[in-house]
C-alpha cells in the first residue's frame, strides 16, 4: 500500500468523530481549473495528474472518478491501490457509491474550502437524507501528511496600463457596488482570481496558464479590502492598489471575515429593530462559486448567493480590450503561420532532424514566447499525430510524445497564448501528404461546413450560447456523427482562456449564457475517429453588431474572425460545399493575406509570405 494513502486513512480513523469516507475533488480554494502543484492533493494521493477528477477514500477503498478525456491516462498513472470509475460509462457517482456501499450512519467528510457552497449543500442534503453524518473539515491536515509540499509562489504581480485595460478600478468597483445595491446587498466577497485580476487591473503568475494571483476581495459597505500575499507587492504596486482598496495579508482573510461578519450581524439585528427608520441593506452578496467555508461563515440568513456580476462585466470587453484582442490574435496568428511554414519546410528535407509531437510543441511554444508582449501560454499546447489526435484532449508525454511526424501523418495542433493586450486559442488540422484518404477529406469538410455555418450566423443578441451549438453539428448529425466537446467558449482578455458565463454547448445550459456584442468566443467543431485520427478547426471570434440587415434592426449580432490562419484547402472536398461556403473560405483567406502580408514583408520573411500566398489561393 502507498504510504501516503496509509497516512490519510490513519488520520481519518483517528479524527473525532471517526471519518469513514473522505471525498476530495481536484480543485483549490478558489475553484480554479488549473491549480498550483502545492494544491494538487488528488495527484499527491492517487498519482493521477489529469485536470478533472474526484476521489473517495475509505478504510478499504480508494476510488478516482474522471471523464473520457483521461481514461487511458488514469489507468497508466493511478497508484496500485486505486480503482478507476469512468464517468459516462459507469452510472455510479461518488454520492451514489456512498449511498450504495457505505453502512447507515457512516461519517462522511469533505474539505470545506474545496467545494463550492452550492455543491456542498447538495452533498450534505442528499447524504443526510440517506442517513449519513456529514462533516465539513476546516483543518488543513494535508500539511501533516504532505511534508515536502511545494512552497507558495511569490512571483510579483504586474499592473496593466490604462492603454491596455481601458477602465480604471474605481469605475469598475463603483459599477459592482451599483449592481449590489440593485440586489439589496451592501457588500460582497469575491474569490474568483480572474475576476479580481480584472477588477483591480492586475496580473500574476500563481496559476499555470492563467495570469492571476491568489487573493480575496471584499467590497464592504464602507470600503473595499484586498487580501493578498504581501511579498508579491513592490512599493509602486502597493501605492497603486491602496488608491482603491485596504490591503491585508492573504492568510488573515478567514479570521477577518469572521470578525467582520460578527460586526455586520449585530448591525443587521439593529437594522431589524429600527426597520422603519433605516433605509439601507446589510445583506452580503456571495458568488455561486464561493467555497463552502466562506459561505458558512456568513450564513444563509445574512447572504444572497447568485452568479457573480463581475463575470458578465468581464466577458463584455470594452473597446480598448477588444482592440487589444484584435492585435494579440493577429500577432498570434503569425506565430501559427510561421510554425506551419517551418514544419512543412522541415518535413521536405530528406536529411533533416526528426520531427515529433514534443518537438512541434517546443517549436511553436518557442515562437510564441518571442512575440511582442507575451505573458505565457494560455494552456498546455496540444500536438497530436494520427491516432493520438483521436483523443480530443490528448497531451504528449515524455513517452508518447516521441511519435514521429511523417509526410503522411495527420497532425492536430491546438495552442494559444496570453499577451498584455489579449488571449488566444487556435487549432489547425493538417497533413503534408499528397494522397489523403477520401474518408478523411469527407469528414474534414463536414467539420469545416459546421464551422462556417456557426461563424456565418446572424442571430438576435442575448441568444443563449447553447442554441448555437447544433448549428455547427448539423452536417455531422445528418450523417450520424458527433463529437464529445462543446463547440465554443468565452475567451478572457489576458486572462482565462476558458471564460464564462457563455459556452456554446448544447450539453451545458447556463441561464446567464447570453451572447452579447463585445464578447470573444471560440468556434471549434471537430470529429474523432477512434484509433485513426482527429479533426478540429478552431478560431477566436469577436461578437459584433450585424450590419446591412434589410430590416435596419440593431438587435442582431454576428461573428468577426480574430484568428486569421489558413485552413488547409487540399483537405477539402469542394463538391460538398455550397457557393456561399466557398465564398466564405476565399474571403477568409483574403483576410489572412491582407492582415499578414505587410508584416512578413517588413520582417523580410519572404519565404513565409510565399507559403501564406499559396495557402490562401482561392478554391
Automatic annotation (TrEMBL):
Residues 19-122 form the Creatinase N-terminal domain. Residues 556-619 form the Peptidase M24 C-terminal domain. Residues 323-543 form the Peptidase M24 domain. It holds the Pfam family Peptidase_M24_C. The keyword Glycoprotein does not apply. InterPro entries: Creatin/AminoP/Spt16_N, Creatinase/aminopeptidase-like, Creatinase_N, Pept_M24, Pept_M24B, Peptidase_M24_C, X-Pro_aminopeptidase_P. This is AMP_N domain-containing protein.
